[in-house]
């Protein structure tokens, strides 16, 4: 299916989300049509420029939107800096590897110049994540807008993010707590078709899976050749080196994540775990074998759903002037 057709399908599907998703009731696709009609053009133009200079930021923007939505809802709390009296989400261990905060401030500043005090940081991030996927040759979708920014960010709450060592039972519970189902879990995991991970994140799978810290203590569910390949890149104590999560096409949003998972060549135990349930396994195997346009359509749907998690609307929260600090 051509990309234009996918877009058409998405637009015709959009009303279903209104009917079935109560949290989306106050978001709308034309939220800024009167107050900031060029919002999408401004974000897209900036994104094209940012990614032409720093292409590796596409994946971090997508991941940042996910981290925002899973902690306190999509309210921009991930963007707030710590203060003298508070440690923010940004400074919690799961955020060690988040990048691109400066670029988000630049896009927000452009929007403040065009339409002051109007577009929330939470919406800016949702738009940037969408454009990051599109510019990585993935699908696009209509972003529902009208999120307001929260005023609180607590490092401790990042424990609501899914840990990469988890088995499926726990991942399902973590997603369910956000109103996301088994299909969203397998589909959104496909985001790992772009981006990188730190050696330190995966070193336990390579050297210390059960805590014995010896050369045989590997994750038994990872392909042996792939373990050897990763070990050649990552020493046991390496904290800096990055590995491509989808080797060879980590800059392209495609369905190769599912090929990797099917071959037990995925970065995380949580990716492998998708093979331990009959529904998610069937999804992985089907999409390892093609059906990219169906994955693209599913990804767009699940991203819209994730973008609705715990949003602030109406008079809740505020519209931040700068994303790193409350007004
Ligand atoms: C089962 C749930 C998930 C787990 C356990 C998980 C875990 C992780 C971890 C540990 C990293 C690498 C961090 C590092 O070492 O630098 C990562 C990277 C990434 N994740 Fe996830 N993730 C999950 C779901 C998602 C979702 C839902 C999205 C987006 C929709 C996403 C998007 C990304 C992206 C794009 C990267 C690459 C970031 C970069 O290149 O800097 N992940 N994830
Ligand atoms: C998943 O992990 C939990 C806690 O570690 C454990 O109780 C459960 O049995 C595990 N489930 C599977 C299928 O391994
Ligand atoms: C190995 O794993 C154990 C248990 O998870 C952990 O306590 C220990 O710090 C790890 N050792 C290394 C060198 O990472
Ligand atoms: C783990 O093993 C490596 C050698 O494989 C060693 O250098 C390191 O000190 C060990 N770490 C711990 C905590 O035992
Ligand atoms: C604990 C820690 O390393 N926190 C980091 C979180 O991310 C920000 C922005 O990249 C870093 O400045 C912090 O050091």
Task: Report on this structure.
- The structure is a single chain.
- The longest helix has 18 residues, at 3-20.
- This protein has 13 helices and two strands.
- The chain has two domains: 23-161, Orthogonal Bundle (Peroxidase, domain 1), CATH 1.10.520.10; 168-304, Peroxidase, domain 2.
- Helix content is 45%, strand content 2%.
- It starts with a helix and ends in a 21-residue tail after the last helix.
- The relative contact order is 0.18.
- It is globular, with a radius of gyration of 19 Å.
- It has 327 residues and is mainly α.
- It binds protoporphyrin IX containing FE and 2-acetamido-2-deoxy-beta-D-glucopyranose (NAG) (4 copies).
Percent of residues in helices comes to: 40-55%
Strand order of the largest sheet: 1-2
What is the tally of beta strands? Answer: 2
Tell the overall outline: globular
What would you call the structural class?
A: mainly alpha
Give the helix tally: 13
Strand and helix layout:
Blueprint: H1 3-20, H2 39-53, H3 58-70, H4 101-114, H5 121-135, H6 168-176, H7 182-189, E1 196-198, H8 199-207, H9 224-233, E2 242-244, H10 256-262, H11 269-272, H12 278-288, H13 292-306
Antiparallel strand pairs: 1-2
Helix pairs in contact: 1-13, 2-4, 2-5, 3-5, 7-12, 7-13, 8-9, 10-12
One 2-acetamido-2-deoxy-beta-D-glucopyranose is lined by residues 167, 169-170.
């Amino acid at each position: 299916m051509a990309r234009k057709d996918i877009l058409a399908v998405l637009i015709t599907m959009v009303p279903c989300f209104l009917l079935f998703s109560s949290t989306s009731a106050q978001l709308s696709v034309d939220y800024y049509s009167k107050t900031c009609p060029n919002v999408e053009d401004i974000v897209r133009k900036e994104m094209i420029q940012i990614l032409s200079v720093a292409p590796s930021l596409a994946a971090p923007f997508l991941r940042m939107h996910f981290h925002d939505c899973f902690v306190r809802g999509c309210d921009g709390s991930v963007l707030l800096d710590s203060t003298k009296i508070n440690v923010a989400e940004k400074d919690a261990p799961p955020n060690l590897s988040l990048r691109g905060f400066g670029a988000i401030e630049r896009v927000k500043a452009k929007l403040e110049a065009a339409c002051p005090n109007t577009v929330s940081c939470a919406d800016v991030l949702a738009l940037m994540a969408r454009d990051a996927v599109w510019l990585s040759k993935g699908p696009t979708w209509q972003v529902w807008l009208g999120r307001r920014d929260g005023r609180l960010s607590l490092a401790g709450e990042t424990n609501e993010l899914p840990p990469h060592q988890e088995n499926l039972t726990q991942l399902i519970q973590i997603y369910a707590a956000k109103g996301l189902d088994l299909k969203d879990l397998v589909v959104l995991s496909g985001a790992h078709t772009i981006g990188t991970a730190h050696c330190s994140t995966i070193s336990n799978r390579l050297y210390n899976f059960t805590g014995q810290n010896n050369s045989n203590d590997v994750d038994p569910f990872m392909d042996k050749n792939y373990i050897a390949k990763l070990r050649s890149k990552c020493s046991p104590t390496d904290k800096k080196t990055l590995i491509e999560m989808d080797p060879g096409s980590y800059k392209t949003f495609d369905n190769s994540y599912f090929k990797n998972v099917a071959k037990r060549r995925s970065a995380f135990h949580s990716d492998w775990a998708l093979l331990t349930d009959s529904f998610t396994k069937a999804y992985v195997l089907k999409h390892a074998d093609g059906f990219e346009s169906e994955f693209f359509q599913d990804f767009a749907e699940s991203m819209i759903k994730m973008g609705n998690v715990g949003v602030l609307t109406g008079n809740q929260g505020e519209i931040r002037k700068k994303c790193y600090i409350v007004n």
